[in-house]
Amino acid sequence: MIVLGIETSCDETAVAVSKDSKILHSEVSTQTIHRKYGGVVPEIASREHEKLLNDMVDYTLNKVKIAKSEIQGIAVTQGPGLAGTLITGVCFAKGLAQGLNCKIIGINHLEAHIFANFLADPKLEYPFICLLVSGGHTQIWFVEGLNDYKLMGETRDDAAGEAFDKGARILGLGYPGGPEIEKLAETGNEKSISFPRALMQSKNLEFSFSGLKTSLLYYVEKQESLCKEDIAASYQAAIIDTLITKLKWAMDKTNCKTCVIAGGVAANQKLRKFVNQTMKNKKVIFPELSLCTDNAAMIAYLGELYLKKGFVSPIDFPVLPNMKLA
Ligand code: KG4
Ligand code: ZN
After folding, report:
1. Residue 260, H or E segment
2. Distance between alpha carbon 140 and the CA centroid of its chain, in Å?
3. What is the CA radius of gyration of the chain?
4. How far is the centre of ligand 1, averaged over its atoms, from the C-alpha of 177 (Å)?
5. Ligand 1 pocket mutation, candidates 108, 180, 265, criterion most atoms within 8 A of CB
6. CATH number given to 124-289
7. Which residues are paired to 139 by β-bridges?
8. Among 3.40.50.620, 3.40.50.720, 3.40.50.1010, 3.30.420.40, what is the CATH number of 2-113+292-308?
9. Which partner from 231, 287, 297, 313 sits 20 to 30 angstroms from 122, CA to CA?
């Protein structure tokens, strides 16, 4: 089956084509215009998607030598995300689906992040634990099958990616903050400052990162001279320690043999290294870097799975900015 995937939940305009569960091509355009504002401006993001989508679809289809008439289904991100950017993508997808008279399915962006791991390892077997760490979410899922997910824990306040982004802003770094902090941390000493790790008692699987961000703010305000490398390394270590400790607790609790990491923060090399070290006797899967951050390959892949099982969305399906999983 040939499926066109479209992703516009935030500031990446992304288009991909899957055929028989293989990604033929995946195209991502990251909107750099937001960098000067230190975060995503929703109205600008929607307009950028609008400008790019048509050409990106044509480019992607040309690249894989597939005609529009061969598309059997369109998978598009329905939520969660920014209302305006979701509407841009979904309206574009609906128009195309009607014009081509093909099926359409709205996809949950978080679920697609989890399923990006099947692109990393097509032999991935259920059940597995997924640590989902993105700009808007930090969650631990027990995944027993397609559409069979149990939430084991999530953040009470900021997401891990948000902690990176807000920390970077406090340090005067660029957006998105994760890669900026990671780069600076490479030459810093992570033991130099002891930042707090929240909710670390009694195998609690909830997260909280807002206190960490506040303690960084106080630290920066108090110090006369700052070694940004040491601060970045210590701050990153506090986030990663918390994520790994809770992932390990979830693995122990369920006796699961496999864990997967999903979402933009999964691109962090230190996180990848420590998860591998901590889970030595377990199977650990990470998507390749381009499949950790937002992309349409994961949308096309999951869309094809659902379409093959007979699921379709009605043409008037709404966008769901606060869409939940399970
Ligand atoms: O999944 P994603 O691309 O978009 C959302 O669905 O939110 O995740 C974006 C988040 C941002 O907060 C960004 O700072 C973070 O992922 N991120 C990273 C890295 N690359 C992206 N965080 C830590 N280290 C990285 N290398
Ligand atoms: Zn995402």
Report:
1. strand 258-262
2. 13
3. 20
4. 8
5. 265
6. 3.30.420.40
7. 132, 154
8. 3.30.420.40
9. 313
